[in-house]
Write a structure and sequence with these properties.
With about 425 residues, the chain is an alpha/beta fold. Helices cover about 30% and strands about 25% of the residues. It has 14 helices and 25 strands. Strands 23-24-1-25 form a four-stranded mixed β-sheet, covered by helices on one side. It has a four-stranded mixed β-sheet with strand order 2-16-18-17. α10 (about 305-315) packs parallel to α12 (about 370-380). The protein is globular and about 60 Å long. The model has no long low-confidence stretch (mean pLDDT about 95). Bound molecules: uridine-diphosphate-N-acetylglucosamine. Uridine-diphosphate-N-acetylglucosamine binds near residues 163 and 305. Uridine-diphosphate-N-acetylglucosamine binds near residues 92, 164, 165 and 328.
Length: about 425
């Protein structure tokens, strides 16, 4: 098992090139199965979730090529619509393939979704949306069989703005006759990136980024070239990491509005921040304390994917602050590990309360999910002494060239293979 060995206490200082977004790349790669002809994706993040998705595409008969950040996918010769169980369980995002496969093949066979264990993560909103378009869904031997070769457009009112369900239903609607409207859908910018990609392939979707998306069904999609948008969660992680070590950072390739809620909190607390459409620069400016409640919420609210990194940052800079988790009920697994490092924080219902600010001490800790794992690395960099973060496989699901980027900022981190 691989682990990171971190020597803490060093102020990070330098620049980080922000990669393409995991949460845009995964649904866009899934959408590629609806196209005929070659797609070339640039700024594709080099993370294990993307590798798993590419393996799934290959298992379906797609031609996948490329290395590093440029990947080509040609689904012209695709000949299967059943995702192998072993690959499906590697990550939850393969559920997005249901809508895309329905459009391409008129059927999809998926198994119960895997991914990080951060709560119940049901797929009822996906299922009811697909049913509204006329898909027939059956559960058999642990698999979900979805059939629908004559889908019809409909108004789909979503009971909750689920990101994945919005993307899935959008993709199924491409194959449905007529114009579908998704009402109360999620507004995350990665959904707009998916819309842009599909439209570039010849689709006609509008409204992504707002609460109503309109999809004109029945259009043939061809391949295209698409640059994956920047990863706002990766950017937020390095920003908090640098400030947590009382350092400074230049984030190259990210525009401020994508992480506005985080920027506002830091700016209000007096951190020095400058930005343009293309970059953000932030610097520690001396003993600032962040007060009040930070509540996670669907976009444009504070992202749940930055909650563990924020709590870790607050362990030293936010005595009295409260962070409330409103999206996933099991996203505090990392708290026990932070307490092991001396953080004076407590969980109360869906909140973490920062009681006092403590200097953290190095310890041996376990990553239990992707963002919680990244938070523990931040903790290790802030701490006095050495920290070992075990189970790095979770972190690699969403952060490409993680240790290289940290070293580029002057952080002392090495990889141990056991
Ligand atoms: C996506 C992101 C993930 C992020 C999350 C919330 C990707 C690949 N992943 O995950 O990084 O943390 O958005 O911003 O884009 N829910 C239901 N029924 C459903 C679907 C969802 O009850 O059918 C619930 C979930 O259990 C959760 C909430 O809705 O409590 C949000 O989930 P959702 O927006 O669907 O997140 P994901 O698409 O899984």
């Amino acid at each position: 098992m691989e682990e990171y060995l971190i020597k803490g206490g060093k102020k990070l200082d330098g620049a980080v090139k922000i990669s393409g977004a995991k949460n845009a790349a995964l649904p866009i790669l899934a959408a590629a199965v609806m196209t005929r002809g070659e797609n070339v994706f640039t700024a594709c993040p080099q993370i294990s979730d993307v590798s798993s998705m590419l393996k799934i595409l290959q298992s379906l008969g797609c031609k996948v090529d490329g290395s590093k950040e440029t990947v080509s996918v040609d689904a012209s010769m695709m000949n299967r619509c059943r995702i192998p169980d072993s690959l499906m369980k590697e990550m939850r995002s393969s559920v997005f393939l249901a809508g895309a496969l329905l459009t391409r093949c008129g059927e999809a066979v998926i198994s119960s979704p895997g991914g990080c264990d951060i709560g119940k993560r049901p797929i009822d909103i996906h299922i009811s949306g697909l049913e509204k378009l006329g898909a027939k869904i059956e559960q058999k031997d642990g698999c979900i069989l979805i059939k629908g070769n004559k889908l019809e457009a409909a108004d789909v009112i979503m009971p909750y703005p689920s990101v994945g369900a919005t993307e899935n239903i959008m993709m199924a609607a491409i194959g449905a006759k007529g114009t579908t409207r998704l009402i109360n859908c999620a507004r995350e910018p990665e959904i707009a990136d998916l819309q842009n990609y599909i439209n570039r392939c010849g689709g006609k979707i509008s409204g992504a980024g707002t609460g109503v998306i309109t999809v004109e069904g029945g259009r043939e999609l061809k391949g295209c070239e698409h640059r994956i948008m920047a990863d706002r969660i990766e950017a937020g992680t390095y920003l908090l990491m640098a400030l947590a070590t009382e350092g400074r950072v230049f984030l190259d390739g990210i525009s401020r509005p994508l992480i506005e809620p985080l920027m506002r909190i830091l700016e209000n607390a007096g951190y020095d921040i400058k930005s343009s459409q293309e970059w953000i620069w932030a610097s520690y400016t001396g003993g600032r304390n962040i007060h009040g409640i930070i509540r996670t919420a669907p976009y444009p609210g504070f992202p749940t994917d930055l909650q563990p990194q924020m709590t870790t940052f607050l362990a030293k800079a936010g005595a009295g602050a409260i962070i409330e988790e409103n999206i996933f009920e099991k996203r505090f697994e990392y708290v026990k590990q932070l307490k092991k490092m001396g953080a004076d924080i407590e969980i109360f219902e869906n909140k973490v309360i920062i009681r006092n600010n403590n200097i953290l001490c190095g310890a041996q800790v376990e990553a239990q999910d992707l963002r919680g794992g990244a938070a523990l690395v931040i903790a290790g960099l802030m701490a006095d002494g050495s920290t070992v973060v075990r189970n790095t496989k979770y972190i690699k699901r969403g952060y490409g060239e993680f240790t290289e980027k940290i070293k580029g900022l002057g952080g002392e981190i090495t990889v141990n293979e056991n």
